[in-house]
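Attaching the record inline, Q. Sequence:
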Amino acid sequence: MEKNIKGISILESLVCLVIIGIGFVAMLQLSSFSINAMDRSIEKNKMNFLSEMVLEDMIGDPNNVSNYSLNQSSCNYTNNYGSKLHQKNINKWKDKLTEKNYIKFDEGSGYKDKKLRCLSGDIKKVTVNNGVGKVNFFTGKGKRKKYLSVVAK
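Structure, as predicted:
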């Protein structure tokens, strides 16, 4: 007796669904990884631009280079209002490092600042020793590090 069975069995269809499901999970993990990599890349570019800005300000004012120092280990800071160029530059750095007034989002009647994530262990430090300016940025809970130095005098 010959049976002519047409169609797909339940077992075959379940195996097919499992294989397709594994493929979808792999694609989701890959997209998540690529989004995180792009975020890290954007953060690195910001740190590069900010560190170059700091050092260019120091090079532009070589007579007061010893006054340029900043140790910002928290997200909160206070401006040292002053009329001297180095005080204004340090206040500008603080605003840029905390991304004050960068991006505004419309929230009904008002706008809200989009601030950079502030994690414990994040440190932004500028030091000057014997005319050599050094910028040290630690982001991502201190795991990602950016060092840059220049002779300012």
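DSSP finds two helices and six strands in the chain. Strands lie at 70-72, 103-107, 110-114, 123-129, 132-139, 144-151.

More tomorrow.
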